[in-house]
Amino acid sequence: MAEQIFDFDPAELLDSDEAIETFITEALQTGDAKFIASALGVVARAKSMSKIAKETGLAREHLYKALSENGNPTLETTLAVMKAIGLELTTRHHAI
């Protein structure tokens, strides 16, 4: 019997605001900038990259590149995408 390999896109699982919030929160907790950018890209795909591009005023191609595993989005791009997907960046003090 031949082994089947299936493509998996986590964007397909992000079907609610709660799922998106949990996904991004966990990504932020890693402290890994590239992982966070990639996670924002997954959410942008889940919400429709074309819609995010329109809402942010940024080109779709720019968003795909900036929000990839090897992307390095500016803070401006990151904040614009977060706003477009309905999230905001907040701070919280924690003991060191």
From TrEMBL:
Q: Return the protein name.
A: Putative addiction module antidote protein
Q: Which SUPFAM superfamilies match?
A: lambda repressor-like DNA-binding domains
What organism does this protein naturally occur in? Answer: Rhizobium vallis
GO MF:
DNA binding
Q: Give the classification, highest ranks.
A: Bacteria, Pseudomonadati, Pseudomonadota, Alphaproteobacteria, Hyphomicrobiales
Q: Which InterPro entries does the record cross-reference, listed alphabetically?
A: HI1420, Lambda_DNA-bd_dom_sf
PANTHER family the record matches: SSL7038 PROTEIN
Source superkingdom: Bacteria
A Pfam family annotated for this UniProt entry: dnstrm_HI1420
